[in-house]
Structure formats: C-alpha cells, structure tokens
Specification:
Strand order of the largest sheet: 2-3-1-4-5
Structural class: alpha/beta
Shape: globular
Distance between the termini: 78 Å
CATH class: Alpha Beta
CATH superfamily: P-loop containing nucleotide triphosphate hydrolases
Number of helices: 9
Length: 262
C-alpha cells in the first residue's frame, strides 16, 4: 500500500463504497474525518492550477440559507490565498446598474494560476464550474429562525430575504427557467442537495475535484537546515506588546468617546 498522502487522498476520492447513515444528519466528527483527505486533494489541485497557469472560476448559487458560504469556506480554508480567493459582490452600485450586466464581474475573473470562488453571482459565462445548492422550504425556515435568534448570524438576514420567504415556489420556477436557458454540455449546472450541509459540502467538493484533470505535485518532505546559533527570544524596544488578557471573562465594553476640544 502506498505511503504517499496524495495517493491516500486519491484512493478516497475514487472510493464510492463510503459508508452512509441512510440520509441522517452527518455527525461533525464523521464530517471532519471525511473532509480532511478532500482538503488535501484540494491543496494538490490548487498547486496544479498555480503550476499550470490554469484559470478556474467556480460559481456557487442556490437558495437562501442553503450553505453557499459554508462550502466556499470549506474549499478555501486550507488553500493558499495567493492562488485562491473568494468574490462575494454586494448589490450593484448606481454606476454598475448602468453598465453591461457582465462588466462588474470582469475585474473579479481569475488570472493565470488562480482559482476564484464566486459567491452568488448569476454570472453565465461558458468555461466555468456552476453549482446550485438546493434546500427544502421547511429546512430553509428552520435556518431562517436560527439566524433571527443568533446575533452572530443575523447579518445573513436582509429585508429581501424576509420578503423572499413567501416566494419559494416562484424561485423554483425562476431557477428552472434559468437552467433551461443556460445549462449546456460545455458549461453545465450541477445541482447539490444541501438539506444536510455537511453532506452537501462533501458531495460538492468530491464532484468538483473529480471534474478537474489535476495532477499531484512532488510532496517530498522539506528538510530545514539548522540555525547558525540558538533560537532568539523576541525583544522589543520602541514599543511593547499589550498585556495578556486572554484569561479574562468580563464583558468587553466600547472605548469612551473622546470629547473634541472646543
């Protein structure tokens, strides 16, 4: 059996006999165990893109609350930010509204040796990987309620999201019309079930890796030469580090505003 970690990752990618819990929610422990070899393979694919000068654009679309940001994070988390970046555009500015629809995306397209993960773009150019993440309305409502109750997730709820809750069927029809118009053999859409976000992430990452002709790089271990002397402690002169407050559990309060001199 090969001891090379890349070979181990490749074997896992091609192993279609992976155990399943029959559609039940995947436990975090099992999810992380399955994600680890995929992230190793993603690292290999990223280095192949960088070495070969490929330009790779991945579009991640889908329902509100489906988990677009989560799967993008799972992909990009361990990759070199010089070779992989995320483009999550805000609503068009007044200037952009008067431009050709594709203009605002041109500046975010990948250069040679780069991967761009575009979060919710509706960009329909050929030669890209396009994913649509689906979620049932009952699960979507559950996630909306979680966001509304959690102050750390409330930023994900916008007035448009709240209005869109009643238009689940209309969005289904709009999606099907989009697929009918833009789903082609050379630039297909790929639909992924994200009712269980952990399973959805693993499924999408496996599919994406399986669609790329990436090659494993030379992964021989690097040997660090010895330092010429003993390791030096950090020394400060002009400024010193702030006090260590990591053990405090008191609430953090904002700094008092300074009065402006009259």
């Amino acid at each position: 059996m090969s001891k090379h970690p890349a070979a181990a990752a490749r074997n896992l990618l091609s192993d279609h006999a992976e155990s399943s819990e029959g559609g039940g929610k995947l436990r975090k422990k099992d999810y992380l165990e399955r994600l680890a070899p995929l992230q190793l393979a993603l690292s290999e694919a990223e280095r192949w893109v960088a070495a070969s000068g490929q330009r790779l654009l991945v579009l991640v679309e889908g329902r509100d609350t489906a988990g677009k940001g989560g799967v993008i994070h799972a992909i990009a988390e361990t990759l070199n930010p010089r070779h992989c970046r995320v483009a999550a555009l805000d609503k068009p500015t007044e200037t952009e509204r008067g431009q050709w629809y594709f203009q605002r995306y041109v500046a975010h397209l990948p250069t040679a040796g780069e991967i761009v993960l575009m979060d919710r773009s509706w960009y329909n150019r050929a030669g890209v990987e396009k994913y649509w993440l689906g979620v049932d309305q009952a699960k979507q409502e559950e996630r909306f309620a979680e966001r509304a109750a959690d102050p750390l997730k409330r930023y994900k709820l916008s007035p448009i999201d709240l209005k869109a809750r009643e238009k689940y069927a209309e969005y289904t029809r709009a999606r099907e019309a989009m697929l009918a118009a833009t789903h082609t053999a050379h630039a297909p859409w790929t639909l992924v079930d994200f009712n269980d976000q952990r399973r959805g992430r693993l499924t999408m990452i496996r599919h994406w890796l399986g669609s790329l002709p990436w090659e494993a790089p030379d992964d021989r271990a690097l040997r660090l030469p010895r330092l010429a002397g003993k390791p030096l402690p950090e020394r400060y002169g002009v400024c010193t580090p702030i006090a260590d407050t990591s053990a405090l559990d008191t609430p953090v309060r904002p700094m008092a505003r300074r009065r402006r001199p009259r």
